Amino acid sequence: MSHPSALRIFLKTIVARGYPRFVSTHRNRAWVFTETLLPLIGTIAMIYVYRALHAPARYLGFVVLGGVLLAFWQNVVYSMATQFFWDRGAGNLELFAMAPTSLAAILLGMAIGGAWVSLTRAITILLVASVLFGVGYSAAGLLPALGVFVLTISALYCLGMLLASLFLFFQREAWNLADAMQEPIYFVSGFYFPVRSLGAVVAGLGSLVPLTLGLDAIRQLVLPGTPQFIPIGWEILAIVVQIVLYAVLSQLSLRYMERQARQDARLILRST
Amino acid sequence: MSAALLQWRGFKAATGLGWQISSNWTSPLIFLLYSVLRPLSAAFILVVMYRVISGGAPGTGAYLAFLVSGVAFWSFVQYGFAGLANGMAEDRGEYRMLKYVYTSPAHFYSYLLGRGLAQLASALASATIVLVVATIALRLPIDPIRVNYPLLLAGSFLALLAVIGMAMAYGMLLLQARDSHGYGDIGAGVLYVISGAIFPISVLPGVLAAIGSLLPLVYWMEIIRRSLLGSNAIRMFPTLSDGDVLLRLVVTTAATLIVAHLVFSWADRSARRRGLIDMESNW
After folding, report:
1. Substitution target from B21, B22, B40, B53 for chain A, most A beta carbons within 10 A
2. pTM of the full structure
């Protein structure tokens, strides 16, 4: 009997793990509602803050674009970083570990499926918020912004894979830590204001999250007049470096954490 | 054992249980950090947004105080409303113990009140630290000696009653769904927008502003700012006296509690009829 090649198994695993995420785009209506409404409500609240301050119109655009990428961040935190925690609770993690495939392929499938789900939510947020509040964008910058967006999301999900391996060690605190990663990241990444306002040190630290640089670059491209943190070329280069760095780190970390988790019998530990 | 003592014991046990569920996943220090990290970051987001627009012009303390006080006290709504509503779904789906609570001698209201009180205890630490840190760091015009404590305490007591009442009714409604995870936060998010927590409700479209003015939370926010800031407070209702605002808070709280009780009773009957109290929700 011939065995499928390792590459075929790897690719089939990606498809198999990504499939539930693709299907959940429309099948789980409760999640469609929460994943779209939660970032949208936050976005609308911040738009009204700027309106109350009589801010120039482009600031509303800052907030809308922040809300769009916020949907991706929430997906990375709740559906990537904490996913192995949930899988362990549901008894799936031990099945993953026994299956003749790698956890890296499972994570990659999860990332691709998750990015698709977030994209559908993000488009809704972009359209609803832009139409409701009359936000306009520079047409000339849309195509390059799309390119930066793809790079940013790639780097973000590589970071998500790294976080997923780290969260493998958490118990009940996983959910609380994921919660605690919300507002502080919105702050240091400049989701609702130009990140330059934070100064070089804080914004520099915030740049460890790929969204910070990606969001700044996209704003510079589609919202002329955005205060520049660093030139776009440097931001794109840094995001490409982050893709490679986080991808490599996530694989190293995953291997180490998986070995440790086997030794400590944490793969089958029920924590809920 | 007297009926009152029975309810008290149920309430006390629920408060202890709620506190343990909220906090015993980590050490007290980490829990404290966790409790203040989110509201503190939320406050600083608003501060930076304001500074970006105002350019750090002098005399900005009053508006910053408006923003910070709203965010700090919003912890009570976030924990009390979203925390309790989510907690009811967790008790059923994750811990699978809602049916045991429901069939115990203590009234279900006593249990939920206790569960809600535990959430508010977390919020108290969070709100206090955010206010203290922001007042010092941003030099806000809040003087602890001049704070109108009776007004603040009376307003907060009424508003928190309303918050717990709304959360009970909303949480019971959420039990009608198989998967309601995150809906507690959506409810709190909607209230955040229409309650004048971070901007005056006059900025909202007419319908939303009208809905907001029917809620006790908007008058609570006004009372918080007036009691903390005195004459420095930016007022959402400049034509109303402190007494008028408090009266409106009393009326809207009473109305909210009546509506919440009706909704809760209906949702409770429906949940019993449809066998939802012990439903397996595949958490």
Report:
1. B53
2. 0.90
